[in-house]
Fold this protein.
Amino acid sequence: MKQNIHPTAIIEDGAIIGNNISIGAFSYIGSKVIIGDNTTILSHTLIEGDTIIGENNRIFSHCVIGSIPQDLKFDGGDVKLIIGDNNTIREFAFINTGTIGGGSITRIGNNNLLMGYVHIGHDIQIGNRCIIANATNLGGHIEIGDFVMIGAMSAIHQFVKLGDYSMLAGASALTQDLPPFCMAEGNRAILRGLNLTGLRRNISRDSIDILKKAYRELFENGNSIKDVVDNLIKSNNNLEVIKISKFIKNSKRGIPYQRKNNV
């Protein structure tokens, strides 16, 4: 077992540390923590609670990971933080465990970049290959899909959902659900169109053209969004259109779009 642990780092009895681990000066690893192989933890980092960290992660200095939720109702219990593989967590990031009332687990997937000063609140679920930029604050119970991009200094309200390939521009305040493939911006954030840059990197031109038509029907033609969603689900076999339609249909917080013709 190859290790590179600074002599000033504290690792409590019970912690499970994988192979080829590097832990920097003055870091603290709690007794319930599990850290996978090939993970690097830089100086002055606190990892505590029932926290599981996968393989090949890079955690920069002064992060606080696995601390108890900022929830006045929290009174302990069997709660966890689970982080997958190949994530980069930059300086001063702050990530809480789950709560009993919120499902008990905060979960971060694989290949994500969390930039400096990002706060991940309790019971949040983050997918894979997401980028969350500097000083973004996420309230509890948020669900974030795959390939989501969130601009710096944004704030997202608790219980909000962001679909796959969506993008929230910097300095935005999002209080409603952001559908897959869409882009929102502003305080309060509203839809500004499709996330075309992300789409061009990941799906076919034909699917993008079909999505453009569906977006116009949903948000730009002044039609009843409920009727359009139902019609798209019944009449369309494009996977992306079905995904955005079902997301909107199942939204509990609503979609942040500007209605036209008083519809």
Q: What stands out?
A: The radius of gyration is 20 Å. Helices lie at 196-202, 205-220, 225-235, 239-250.
